[in-house]
Design a protein that fits this description.
The protein is α/β, with parallel strands linked by helices. The chain is built from nine helices and twelve strands. The protein has a three-stranded mixed β-sheet. Strands 9-10-12 form a three-stranded mixed β-sheet, with no helix packed on it. The chain has a two-stranded antiparallel ribbon with strand order 1-5. The longest helix has 15 residues. 30% of the residues are buried.
Length: 235
């Protein structure tokens, strides 16, 4: 695992070298982890909850499993399975920003500490995105064993990094889906940037390690759909 992390960080750093962003002088401080996690507010996850919105983890040995799905359709399938196994329990699929879901689970785990149990939250994305990430990493020379150990939640970016304008200035972009990364690359005039892949933990680690705030996550399709349903303006 350490070798995989080091290699992925090296790949990301190499791509960073060509980010066309200039920054004003500022103290050499890393980005707080909490601030990095807040960038995931544009990535909703879908999970099973009670009618009041309380997460419903599933017992599994000494742990409790609470899958977080990136696609609502997959969460609906899980709900159907849950309702069949628990006909007397009322449940629903709730959409929660990934950073908020993480905070809630941490709070629940604090309360569960005395019981010796822990909530485990696998993030379930699409097989297509995982397959694309694996293919990209294998092309870069990463072994299948390292990929299997180190790749859980694929994130895509470009070499050179693509940037978008935000109220705080230009930022390099990480994409949660290969489709979004491909669409973004297709809008670039001239030579197309190469699409790269990394695990979400590595992307967050890179954000935290930077001395300046240089990155954002691109809002997922699910985020835009939720904003439309709620009648809220896009970020």
């Amino acid at each position: 695992m350490p070798d995989f992390v080091a290699r992925m960080r090296a790949i990301t750093v190499a791509a960073l070298a060509s980010v066309p962003v200039s920054f004003a002088s500022a103290p050499a401080l890393a980005i707080p982890e909490e601030a990095a996690l807040k960038k995931l507010a544009v990535v909703p996850v879908f999970l099973l909850t009670s009618e009041k919105g309380i997460p419903l983890p599933i017992p599994n040995g000494d742990n409790l499993i609470l899958p977080m799905f990136l696609q609502k359709e997959r969460a609906n399938q899980e709900l159907a399975t849950f309702e069949k196994a628990n006909p007397n329990t009322k449940a629903k699929v709730s959409a929660i920003p990934m950073n908020t879901a993480n905070e809630r689970v941490n709070q629940m785990n604090i309360k569960l500490k005395e019981t010796g149990k822990q909530i485990v939250t696998p993030v379930v994305g699409s097989k297509a995105d995982m397959d694309q990430a694996v293919a990209i990493l294998e092309k870069q020379g990463v072994s299948k064993a390292d990929i299997q150990k180190g790749l859980s939640i694929p994130v895509f970016f470009h070499k050179p990094f693509l940037t978008i304008k935000t109220p705080e200035g230009s930022r390099g972009v990480f994409f949660m889906t290969y489709k979004d990364a491909t669409n973004a690359a297709g809008k670039v005039q001239g030579a197309k940037p190469e699409i790269m892949a990394v695990d979400l933990t590595n992307a967050l680690a890179q954000i935290v390690d930077e001395k300046e705030d240089r990155f954002v996550f691109y809002p997922t399709t699910a985020f835009f759909a939720l904003m439309k349903d709620q009648g809220a303006p896009n970020p």
